[in-house]
Solute carrier family 26 member 6
Amino acid sequence: IAEMKRVPYHIQRDVLDELGVDQVAEKSDFKISAKEKLREAVRCTGPRFKSCFLSFVPLLTWLPRYPFRENAIGDLISGISVGIMHLPQGMAYALLAAVPPVFGLYSSFYPILIYFIFGTSKHISVGTYAVMSVMIGSVTERLAPDSDFMIPGNDTNSTSLDIVSRDAERVKIAATVTFLSGIFQLLLGLVRFGFVVTYLSEPLVRAYTTAAAIHVIVSQLKYSFGINPQRYSGPLSLIYTIIEDCALLGQTNIGTLVVSIVTIIGLVAAKELSALAARKIPIPIPVELITIIIATVVSWQMDLKTEYGVEVVGKIPSGLQAPVAPAVSLLGSMVGDAFALAVVGYGIAISLGRIFALKYAYKVDSNQELIALGLSNSIGGLFNCFAISCSMSRSMVQVSTGGKSQVAGAISALVILVILLKIGELFEELPKAVLAAIIYVNLQGMMKQFGDIRSLWRTNKVDMVVWVMTLILTVLFNPDMGLAASIAFSILTVVFRTQLPKYSILGQVPGTDIYKPVEDYNQVKEIPGIMIFHSSATLYFANAEMYIDALYEKTGVDVAKLLSHKKKLEAKRLRKEKKAAKKAKKEAKKRAKEAVKAAEDVGAVEVGPDPDTDTTLPQAIILDLSPVNFLDTVGVKTLRNIYKDYGEAGVQVYFCGCQRGVVESMEKGDFFNEKVTKSILFSSVHDAVLYCQQGNSEEVIQGTHL
């Protein structure tokens, strides 16, 4: 790469302080009042109402302009391919949610139709998702444990599990928490709170999904080994579950274990072959669909349920269910879970949606996505669906098979509708171990995210710490508690970084108006008599004290000690003068001259310099405030004290690079008065340096060369 050509430039202008800049640039004092802003926000006109309505229902905007010839075939093929994937994934993820498999199919139908109408992303495939399902499962199993549905058996000491009543209660709980999470998303979208996802950084999301995948794997071990461990909830529940599973390994159902192993090996091999064949075959091979068809046929022919005790899916009712009102009495016990579902579901969907939007050059409305997901979950909850988000695997298939709009999602919903009405009952003999195996294989991508630790170690160690802590917190706690703790830890890292900024003294690059830290460059030299202090972070209550300490250390001037020393000298001088005056009155007139001379000698002693302070005082100190984007009351007070204390010590303090919000905070904080004006503020470091070099003159320095 050729070296960039250096273009010389020469500017001649006056040295400008803040008042000068305001005058030259003609600062505008026009401000819109809060009343006017509110009036403008609620003002409704015909065009504005039309725009708001169309933005609320994007379908009415893009569907009339749908390019049928260009997109129809691709969307049709993509929709069918994704719809086929919805069948095994919906049934498998229903196990994670601890509800019958058919409700996974419902969750792959109703929400998708709603998103088709209100969503703005053209390429994501919404529906069941492993992380959301395991979060739902933690709620359903906590509020409806097996122990609540044990009924007496025929024998005196025997009990049996009422599976029908348990499943009905868990479906009601899953639908209710889904409805509530949808309401949260809808409300956040209506108040334009789409930015809430900014608190979910990419390392946090990836670590959280990895930890959730571990929860998923552990929750499915019981289906792979044919055991029935006790349900644990709360902190360390994952550890207790693993210990319980290990204790029950002696009760493993061999038939179930064989089915699991064979299915996992078959799925992994088939997916590898499918990946190799993808170069020649434009449509992906539906490996999972073929797997559940073969497994269902084998289970039916060999009667695995009766002969080997392998647990199967069971009855799958045909048709659709009527809407049911949510259980209002349960809402109070699941508020935290619902909010966690709302945030996680939205965070995953908008992150993936933005990736595709950037790749294919269109815009995804973050607030409208909240509304779309909120309606999908709240309406879906009325039809006994559980919370949905988007799936990376299905979205990649949708894109790779030619999907170019939300029409592909609608077609996939129609595929599920056909399955619900006609085909679903054919899978009643499908072993649950096969669905668990499908889940394991689909989690391969999430397990590969452990490689993030190595890459983050090289690029950003703080992000790596966030990743590791998110994983640990989510594994040790439930997914909802783990998410809250992870967000809190992530925010704390930001706070700590503002509390531990880099403080430095700036020097001038020879022959330029550029100033850099003197410790980072060999040719950068300090300006004689002028100290330029720079902090890499903003100034607020959490780091104000450290800012002052660093200023004292870097400038080598401890103002507190300096002022204390001067006060002691002054007090000592006053005491000696008073003593000398009393002595002078008692002495005779003939010794008046000697008394006066003694007093003069005393006064001369008191103004002696302090070798540790006065000899090293700079002429001026310039505080570079360009990184400061806001000032709270503590920050304003800190700057006021710095200016006052150094001023009393004979050192003039100037400020440069102040943003408008910082200046306004200083004005509101009564920083300025008749003696302290904006003449101590400068737009750049160089302006302040030139002003100091000319002597603290009130006149504008003309013809300064930059």
Notes: The mean pLDDT is 85. Residues 68-96 form the longest helix (29 residues). The first strand starts at residue 12 and ends at 13.
